[in-house]
User: Which sequence fits this backbone?
DNA sequence: TTCGTCTATCGTCGATTGACGATGAATAGG
DNA sequence: CCTATTCATCGTCAATCGACGATAGACGAA
């Protein structure tokens, strides 16, 4: 809700992401189990709860911890739907990291010529 | 040299990057000092050697270790230019991570409408 | 050769991470 | 009421990370 009309305003929505911000984002993705979870949420658009535990094959407490890390980084959001919790991706949170990668591609590859 | 005509062949160039691969890539970026180094190589296109040590403000051995990690992940390459070493970015190595982020953006945002 | 510069590696230390089981809280259904 | 389900939190353990100083190797210059 907070990032509603972000594309309308030119300046304040781009506070030039800190190196720490980007590193924190990368750190949240820096584990196979968490990549697995992100991919899971990518294909089953519908949010899933305990199914994640079955899918990744780790203990429930371990998966819960990974979900906590992803949530703390803002990469996923958990909506309470008693007694389950509904997890979804929050694409906007990944913008700073994607922006850095885009900058690398632009600088390193003269003409991608796609599009 | 190995990835010359990669865009011509349809299958072998896209082995569906493993979660481990992407996680390793993210892990290599999961530190402020390493983000700093990447950004440095991004603005000073020319490869730099010991200037990195001055710039990040850590001990030489520590910076060397960060450079080793980035190099091991394939994100940068070091060209020997005695007695210095010339570091440059290797954008292609970041493709798997960027591809995941793109997939998240596509799935999560209905119509980007760019292009 | 000797000196100075630039890097890489080693060893060590404290801090953090990742995994687990056990426990606890909140809710739906009997 | 009691029970089952789902998730979060706690405590503990081994493993890894990040930082540093010290050291060693490779070369250019004097």
Assistant:
């Amino acid at each position: 809700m907070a990032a509603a009309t972000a594309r309308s305003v030119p300046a304040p929505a781009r506070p030039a992401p800190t190196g720490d911000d980007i590193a924190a984002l990368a750190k949240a993705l820096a584990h196979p189990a968490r990549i697995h979870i992100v991919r899971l949420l990518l294909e089953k658009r519908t949010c899933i709860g305990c199914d994640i535990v079955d899918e990744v094959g780790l203990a429930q407490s371990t998966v819960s911890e990974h979900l906590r890390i992803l949530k703390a980084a803002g990469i996923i959001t958990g909506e309470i739907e008693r007694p389950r919790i509904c997890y979804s991706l929050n694409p906007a949170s990944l913008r700073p990291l994607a922006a850095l990668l885009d900058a690398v591609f632009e600088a390193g590859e003269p003409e991608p010529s796609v599009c």
